[in-house]
């Protein structure tokens, strides 16, 4: 059991901490030495989210989890390293798209693979891997910035770390079930309650993505010393890891109650830069958003398994696709309004409202939690 939990943690650290979220601490570096603008950063982020959406849709098809996880981790290593060796927006967009596809595959299959083999109390340990991966990537970028390395060198370093972790994970991912057995399983039957989960998970994607993508950039605008603003993303990841493990202690209250409460806390974090000026608002945002986004992910995946049983991978994939659709809208909204008066503030306010509405929808229909 410890081997399965550690394998799931490490796989999610690579898939999400590097494949999905490493671009966030990399954006300030690429702005400095590669001439990437904030608008271009929004397009690159959106390319990753479009890939994540496509990968989630693809993950609804039957696949052997061991092969899916290994293939996804290999693709993340390759696309991360390749970012250092190309120097055009077209190639960067393609690579971020492919990394998004691989990340969605990894999240869906690592989640279903792990939750099927572990008791609910261990789920927090597995999903904390995303936070630890974010903290590792952010801390590495912070250290590399201190030593004055280029963005290309930083991408190589991230790819090398991902390769080492993926190599350790590779032999531990085994799938006892057969493809034939999976084909014989009944198909997932949609219900109004399942649709509620999908829509609320999409609201979560839109609500959190703006601070998740632009926290380091916002911090850099307030404090020019990278020794200070560079801590925003490692803090985001560390709070995600710790809160995910702590949330398991409250699992007896029900996955949806945890999800709803976390959505309200995230809404406050999204709105924090609007209420508190300067670095204090950004730090509070990093803590509240970073401290809740993996709690929601964990609770959402557990609730999918609660209501879908053995057919949970199909619901997980649909929720992940909805999440990705919400994320696609967020950076595009920033790119569209960032040059307008109070444009960024309007997007933050809208994201906060969407999260509050999703929390209300979840609280209105709590499902009993299996013992």
* CATH class value: Mainly Alpha
Name given to the CATH homologous superfamily: MFS general substrate transporter like domains
State the secondary-structure class: mainly alpha
Rounded to the nearest angstrom, the distance between the terminal CA atoms is: 19 Å
User: What fraction of the residues are assigned to beta strands by DSSP?
Assistant: under 5%
Q: What's the tally of helices?
A: 16
Q: Could you tell me the mean pLDDT? A: 84
Q: How helical, in percent, are the residues?
A: over 70%
N-to-C SSE series?
A: HHHHHHHHHHHHHHHH
Number of domains: 1
* Low-confidence sequence ranges: 178-182
Proper CATH architecture: Up-down Bundle
Largest sheet: none
Shape by Cα distribution = globular
Query: Which fold name fills CATH's third level, the topology?
Result: Growth Hormone, Chain: A
Radius of gyration: 19 Å
Tell me how many strands there are: 0
Descriptive tags:
globular; single chain; mainly alpha; Growth Hormone, Chain: A; 371 residues; 78% helix; 16 helices
Account of the protein in words:
This protein has 371 residues and is mainly α. The chain has one domain: Growth Hormone, Chain: A. 78% of the residues lie in helices and 0% in strands. It contains 16 helices and no strands. It has helices at residues 2-18, 23-33, 38-58, 65-82, 89-115, 123-146, 151-169, 179-184, 192-222, 226-229, 232-247, 255-275, 279-290, 293-308, 312-337, 343-363. Helix 9 packs antiparallel against helix 14. The longest helix has 31 residues, at 192-222. The protein is globular and about 50 Å long.
